[in-house]
Write a structure and sequence with these properties.
Thiol Ester Dehydrase, Chain A; 6-stranded antiparallel sheet; 6 strands; 3 helices; about 25% helix; alpha+beta; single chain; about 140 residues
């Protein structure tokens, strides 16, 4: 019996200590899609007194991973990029929504929008993955 996208993401998240440290919560999972959220904490600040850009990137990267792997095919990032549009503050609740733009045999293309609790778009991430054709769950 094939595994559902939700079962695959639950398995990934179980062993994903970094996403757990970020405090990521899964909101919605569907084939080629994920929506997750997290709350920005004070230890996520950088030495310049602002939230580290890696926080928004990491949230988007997790949403990307959950979307491109949830068909139970091990997929890894080939290329990613992010545009930071608005500053992120401590206490912000960030929501990342990953949408599949292309699902090929060996690659996939995804766009992840990251919004805050006021529904302001704070970053836009694009990622291309390579599909290994190995199963995540046997």
């Amino acid at each position: 019996m094939p595994h559902t996208p939700q079962q695959v993401v639950t398995q990934i998240l179980k062993d994903d200590l970094f996403s757990q440290w970020l405090g990521i919560e899964v909101i919605e999972i569907a084939e080629g899609y994920s929506k997750i959220k997290m709350t920005v904490r004070k230890e996520m600040m950088n030495g310049l007194g602002i939230v580290h850009g890696g926080i928004a990137f990491s949230l988007a990267d997790s949403a990307f991973a959950f979307a491109c792997n949830n068909r139970n095919v091990l997929s890894v990032a080939l290329d990613t990029s992010i545009n930071f549009l608005k500053p992120v503050q401590v206490g912000d609740i960030l929501i990342a929504e990953a949408k599949e733009l292309h699902n090929g045999k060996s690659t996939g293309l995804y766009q992840v929008s990251i919004s805050n609790q006021q529904q302001h778009l704070v970053a836009l991430f694009k990622g291309t993955c390579f599909r290994t054709h190995r199963k995540l769950i046997e």
